[in-house]
Amino acid sequence: MNRNRRTSLQVAGSAGLYGALLAIGLLRPGQASAQSLEQAFKTAGIAETLKALGAAGAPESKDIVINAPDIAENGAVVPVGIRSGLANTQMMALLVEKNPSALAGAYDILDGAEADVNMRIKMGQTSDVFAVVKADGKFYVAKKEIKVTLGGCGG
Amino acid sequence: MADPMKIRAVVRNGVADVRVLMAHEMETGQRKDSSGKLVPAWYISEVTGALNGKQVLKAYWGPAISKNPYLQFKVKGAKAGDKITVSWVDNKGEKRTDEATAS
Q1: Please, are residues A33 and A91 in contact by the beta-carbon 8 Å criterion?
Q2: From the list B58, B66, B72, which residue is nearest A122 (CB)?
Q3: Quick check: B69 contacting A, CB < 8 Å?
Q4: Which fold has domain A3-148?
Q5: Would you say A120 and A78 are in contact if contact means Cβ atoms under 8 Å apart?
Q6: ipTM value of the model?
């Protein structure tokens, strides 16, 4: 038995299964982005991270609201919320421009959840934060500057 | 085993407001200990939220999420008595699942 052939058959089989799951709607395209997210978590800077997310050149949207303080006293705990008013929001992500890796968190909004999440993040220094929203297959961004008086990284 | 999460789910006008507090170090991998060695990264990488067993939210996190993470999300079509389940997995493969009843 040819071993290589076996493994390639297995790979082909799982790809086929994946395609079938996708076709019958068990998997939504948003979830398929997990691999590219892994890459996006490793990149620094907004432009690079947007590219890793597949959102390079996304236009700004006024329907995305970043709910965060203008000045955060403690960079270790900065409350940030993202709300999207865009129809069919599938994915939302939060990026911090000057953190060692820009992507802080990404959220798949599946059936039944509202496009409204809140979290607490660390920020090394004063920086712009970007909300990236994927709605109806298209990406949009919004940004807000948060001033940090005490950094939350290192220590 | 990690400490349990604190989950509160309050329903208002058919939408459950779910607030979760997890107990986790969320080590960034950037910090050095007293001997100058890098402390390896240790953080929750995935969180899922489900209503009555049906997944509604999946979060992918990096180490930039604060220590003892807080997450708030909203679930449509929920009513009092519904089960809200939250699970997380960290980058070392440790996991935790907790459940709360919406009120």
Answers
A1: yes
A2: B66
A3: yes
A4: Immunoglobulin-like (2.60.40)
A5: yes
A6: 0.89
